[in-house]
Amino acid sequence: MTKQADIKKKSLKPGNMLSPLPVVLVSCGGTPKWKPNLITIAWTGSVCSEPPMLTISVRPERYSHEIIKATREFVVNVPSLQQAGATDWCGMVSGRSVDKFTATGLTPAPALKLRCPIVLQCPLNIECRIRQSLLLGSHTMFVAEVIAVQVSATLVDAKGRLRLEKGGLIAFAHGQYFALGRCLGRFGFSVRKRTGKGKTR
Ligand SMILES: Cc1cc2nc3c(=O)[nH]c(=O)nc-3n(C[C@H](O)[C@H](O)[C@H](O)COP(=O)(O)O)c2cc1C
């Protein structure tokens, strides 16, 4: 074992350092009582395959928290580079005082299974219905089942394969937005046998 004295590391204050994170535009509302709203969320993650589930963590003081708690549904819209500015902006202003769809020019479009609209311009739209809400402390974690998914037709190739790498997706790390870089390989590349130079079976 390497000795503590030889480790070239610095200790940081315990905090939310997990990086990189996705950053998404969550749409909510769309009922007679709740007009559609958008909230930027970085604290989101996939948590179960069967049934497919994800979580978003939202502070109770957010206007979107009120809407999501009441309607029990939301859409996770995964933005591309083109929506990076709008994604940041929707995280700076509250839907209590502004209609974020109108202000950003983002288009609300029908979801397949929910009353809540999707964001048309975002390449990937994940429709979610809440299964559980857990007040963890500063944030409520909404645990939700994915009940429908829509993807831009341009990201599905002629063979029906999903080509998300062409979607211009973005990431968030320690307060900064990043474009994704080069692809390092398909999952499992480390154990696949090579059949020729640069080729895998
Ligand atoms: C990059 C980024 C990530 C954010 N992530 C979260 C988050 O995970 N949870 C949260 O409650 N607020 C998050 N926020 C803050 C909300 O998006 C922000 O307070 C927003 O204005 C709330 O809008 P609303 O009042 O219309 O719901 C984030 C903001 C930014 C810019």
Task: Describe the secondary-structure layout.
Blueprint: E1 21-22, E2 24-28, E3 37-41, E4 44-48, E5 53-58, H1 63-71, E6 73-78, H2 84-90, H3 100-104, E7 108-109, E8 118-119, E9 124-135, E10 140-151, E11 170-173, E12 176-179, E13 194-196, E14 199-200
Antiparallel strand pairs: 1-11, 2-3, 2-6, 4-5, 5-10, 6-9, 7-8, 9-10, 11-12, 13-14
The structure holds flavin mononucleotide.
The site of flavin mononucleotide has 21 residues, from β3, β5 and α1.
Bound molecules: flavin mononucleotide
Radius of gyration, Cα only, in angstroms?
A: 19 Å
| Secondary structure category | mainly beta
> Can you tell me the overall shape?
globular
Biggest sheet descriptor? 7 strands, antiparallel
Helix content: 10-25%
The number of strands is 14
